[in-house]
Design brief:
The C terminus is likely disordered. Strand 21 and strand 22 form a beta hairpin. The protein is 27% helix and 25% strand. By secondary structure, it is of the alpha+beta class. The radius of gyration is 28 Å and the shape is globular. The strands form 11 sheets. Strands 1-2-3-10-11-12-13-20-17-16-15 form an 11-stranded antiparallel beta sheet, with helices on one face. Strands 7, 8, 9, 14, 18 and 19 form a 6-stranded antiparallel beta sheet that branches. A 6-stranded mixed beta sheet has the order 23-38-39-43-40-41. Bound molecules: beta-D-glucopyranose and 1-deoxynojirimycin (NOJ). The site of beta-D-glucopyranose has 6 residues, from loops.
Length: 831
């Protein structure tokens, strides 16, 4: 589990980066509540409060040359030699380097010429502050006189303006300095009631706040004037580019070390108490915060609190199974990545600038599936926030800003899958928690100010939206696009200056999506089961009528002979058909039809999945479609804009792979399921890491497909729906631990070679210790279920409130109940 850049340290739950020149910057996130930091293995990245666009505290230069050249930096001047413990920006060769990305913290250790500097970056739980715990050690046998220089570059809060409107920003930057505390107060004189504090818990001997002075107008940060000269200039920025830098002078005897901390904090101020004297910012809160972290032990206890929080969180689901990469990813990294998607949706990563995209409607609803077991209360709120951006016709704002929670009108809507994901997330929430009261929460619609329709009303509106918008084959209209944002069947754009995503659609656009049909079948069956659980039998029956109608249309119109079509285009022609020269078979409709219950009784689901295996699968995963498109086709849109094998044009778009895994589970194929699960798993890429390039510990959005020029090369790590779905595929599909309305269902689908596995699962406050044995070496089918010593029939461990721990023993080798393949949930009694 190591490659030439790093390795997993499973016991410590850390990824250890062993050299700084990774194939791409390898990122970690700091923060869980409101203050977040992006932190690479060389300390690069930036910090923001809640919204990477509207409250960005420090700057980042995306797509810089070289990449990732601004961040949280500490320079060491040791007798004229200047170096950084994280290597960048000076890139002075280090004697030793190590970066440990852990859960909410990153620890970077660099050593040179007998001096070791350790930087530990983290955000204490509940605090709007990023701490840089710093330890400097003299490992040599002579006294060391060192000068250290810290560095952050302030962003003038609104990141888009900051990066584009220099005629204003070069004039508006302001700072105040008090002792070691540098206050970034740009725009504070007018409407901002917040400032950023960058301070040190140790005495400083100088500071700078002007980038021009610190670096030099014509110098990069790698050759910054102040650290090279070894003397701070006490510069005060007036406009231009305000920064925060401290000078610290340290004298260390041989073997001696010193520990202190830098504190980068965001402070909101009561409007009435903004100033302590005319035009001077009230620094009381800043002073208190700094005093708090200057107390002996305060930094360490904050770090312990952070670690305790993660240990507790991850203890919700732990596994011990024969596949080490599955165990390692699930126990730590996959759940950790799901929390990142909770916090950030698709807004801020190394590939999402935090400016263009906020919280995605379909994205965040799917993300819920990956974190609902960890943070059910926050998942509840997220679902309600999302629902509030739905319109009364059932369509949705495609994205909303996290700070305002208002739909982003620039991005618009018209994606006809969006609303269905709300059903999927809501049902997952109720299954996890048993809390059906969420359905009655008054939310209202974004286009009807003051309205207060319930969440359940939204779900019904979503069903009605799809039913009421069908095309000539009785299948759901696709709108601007479905899950595949780039399959634009109605736009016909030929204008290079137009964005594919917001290009208009032709009047009366009639293209239909088979994927939405499959998703509808899945979502409606979920909602029907919820109604059944609530004893609303008439509603259940009504939904099954709609289900039957759509299913009939799918089976009558969407079967191509060996697989399901992907869509019908605006002219009513099939997309994803055997007679096409390119884009012959698409994955999305195969798995979604299967997951929705199509092809269950007639063998088509199996045949569709076999076709996926034959035509789309490779060692790096399943491609979106093949062959990829080699020329631009306006009738298909953005999908044909990418070079063959990249992104939506036939790459291995990882998000879709767990759907395939789940489909194999449905079909009872444990070997295939695990194989497809591992194909996209980043931890399995050690032997081709220079090709793969992305972080080995988190999923990427896309891996260049077999037909690409650089097959196997991953892009866009971290913020992808792959995280949630990979977690669902492993935990619910393969390991088969499925939250259900009345308890936990245990329905594994594992490789027959597995002898056993164990799961610890916290569910509705009770810890289930589950052991699954496989003496007959089958994939699935529960032969016996024993709960706290009592034998039960079936595979449901009923929810027993009041207990703290429940022992569950499962032996495989029985028949899998047919209902799992069929469409109807078991008739249910009202509670
Ligand atoms: C990307 C998609 C993304 C869409 C919306 C497209 O350019 O290829 O993956 O969903 O933009 O941001
Ligand atoms: C990324 C987007 O965030 C997501 O919404 C979309 O479904 C996929 N790309 C596929 O296009």
């Amino acid at each position: 589990m190591s490659n030439r850049y790093g390795r997993f340290d499973d016991a410590a739950r850390e990824y250890v980066v062993t050299r700084p020149d990774t194939p791409l910057p390898w990122l970690n996130y700091l923060g869980q509540d409101e203050l977040f930091g992006l932190c690479t293995n060389t300390g690069g990245g930036y910090t923001f409060w809640r919204d990477a666009r509207l409250r960005r505290l420090t700057r980042y230069r995306y797509n810089d040359v070289p990449l990732d050249s601004v961040g949280r930096y500490l320079y060491v001047n040791d007798g004229g030699t200047v170096w950084n413990p994280g290597w960048k920006p000076t890139k002075t060769e280090l004697d030793r380097y190590e970066c440990r990305h852990g859960l909410g913290y990153t620890r970077i250790v660099g050593a040179k010429d007998g001096v070791e500097v350790e930087l530990l970056f983290f955000v204490p739980p509940g605090e709007n502050a990023e701490i840089w715990k710093t330890t400097v050690r003299n490992e040599g046998d002579a006294v060391k006189d060192l000068r250290l220089f810290s560095y952050v570059e302030f962003c003038l809060y609104e990141a888009f303006n900051d990066a584009t409107n220099y005629q204003r920003s070069y004039a508006s930057g302001e700072v105040e300095v008090e002792g070691s505390a540098i206050y970034h107060v740009s725009e504070y004189r007018e409407r901002r009631n917040h400032y950023t504090l960058f301070a040190c818990t140790r005495e400083v001997s100088g500071f700078d706040t002007s980038r021009d002075v610190f670096a030099g107008v014509h110098s990069g940060l790698h050759e910054a004037a102040v650290p090279l000269a070894g003397r701070a200039q006490r510069s005060i920025a007036h406009g231009w580019n305000p920064i925060g830098s401290h000078q610290l002078d340290l004298r260390l005897e041989p073997g001696a070390e010193e520990t202190f901390a830098f504190v980068l904090a965001y402070v909101e101020q009561d409007a009435a108490e903004k100033f302590e004297s005319p035009s001077v910012a009230n620094k009381e809160q800043g002073r208190r915060l700094l005093a708090r972290y200057s107390e002996p032990g305060a930094v360490d206890s904050a770090l312990q609190a952070l670690q305790a929080r993660w240990t507790d969180l991850l203890s919700t689901f732990q596994v011990d199974c024969p596949e080490p990469n599955a165990t390692r990813m699930l126990n730590t990294w996959n759940q950790y990545q799901c929390m990142a998607t909770f916090n950030l949706s698709r807004s801020a990563s190394l590939y999402e600038t935090g400016i263009g995209r906020g919280m995605g409607f379909r994205d965040s609803n799917q993300d819920v599936l990956g974190f609902v077991h960890l943070i059910p209360d926050r998942a509840r709120q997220r679902i309600l926030d999302l629902a509030a951006t739905q319109l009364s016709d059932g369509t949705c704002f495609h994205q909303y800003q996290p700070l305002t929670k208002k739909g982003n009108a620039d991005i618009g809507g018209g994606f006809y899958d969006d609303h269905l994901w709300l059903i999927v997330s809501t049902c997952a929430y109720v299954k996890e928690t048993g809390d059906a009261s969420i359905l009655q929460e008054p939310i209202g619609y974004a286009d009807l100010p003051g309205s207060s329709e319930t969440l359940l009303h939204h779900l019904e509106t979503s069903v009605a939206m799809t039913l009421g918008n069908r095309g000539g084959h009785g299948l759901p209209l696709i709108g601007h696009a479905d899950w595949n944002d780039c399959l634009n069947l109605n736009s016909f754009t030929t204008d290079p200056d137009e964005s594919f995503q917001t290009a208009g659609d032709i009047e009366g656009s009639k293209a239909e999506s088979v994927m939405i049909a499959g998703l509808f079948l899945y979502a409606v069956r979920e909602l029907a089961a919820l109604y059944a659980h609530l004893g609303r039998i008439a509603d259940e029956a009504r939904l099954f009528q709609a289900y039957d109608e759509l299913l009939a249309a799918v089976e009558a119109e969407a079967w191509d002979g060996e697989w399901y079509l992907r869509a019908f285009d605006a002219a009513g022609e099939p997309v994803g058909t055997h007679s096409a020269d390119e884009g012959r078979i698409f994955v999305e409709s195969q798995s979604w039809c299967a997951l929705g219950g199509a092809g269950a009784g007639n063998g088509r689901a199996r045949q569709a999945l076999e076709s996926v295996q034959t035509h789309l699968a490779s060692t790096d995963g399943v491609a979106l479609h093949r062959p990829p498109f080699t020329r631009y086709r306006p009738e298909l849109g953005e999908i044909t804009s990418y070079p063959p094998g990249y992104k939506e044009n036939g790459s291995i778009f990882c998000h879709t792979n767990p759907w395939v895994t789940l489909s194999w589970c449905l079909l009872g194929e444990g070997d295939r399921a695990l194989e497809s699960h591992l194909a996209i798993c980043p931890a399995t890429k050690d032997d081709r890491i220079d090709t793969y390039r992305n972080e080995p510990y988190v999923y990427a959005q896309t891996i260049a497909g077999p037909d690409a020029a650089t097959p196997g090369e991953a892009k866009n790590s971290w913020l992808t729906g792959t995280a949630a779905w990979a977690l669902v595929a492993l935990t619910q599909g393969i390991l088969g631990v499925k939250p259900d309305y009345r308890g936990l269902r245990i329905d594994p689908c594992i490789p027959p070679a597995w002898d056993s596995f164990r799961v610890t699962r916290r569910f509705r406050g009770v810890v289930y210790e589950i052991t699954v044995r496989n003496p007959h070496h089958v994939s699935c089918g529960v032969q016996s279920l024993t709960v706290d010593g009592s034998k039960l029939t079936g595979d449901l461990v009923p929810d027993v409130p009041g207990k703290t721990t429940v022992e569950v023993e499962v032996v495989l080798g029985g028949n899998r109940p047919a209902r799992r393949r069929g469409r109807r949930a078991q008739p249910a009694r009202a509670r």
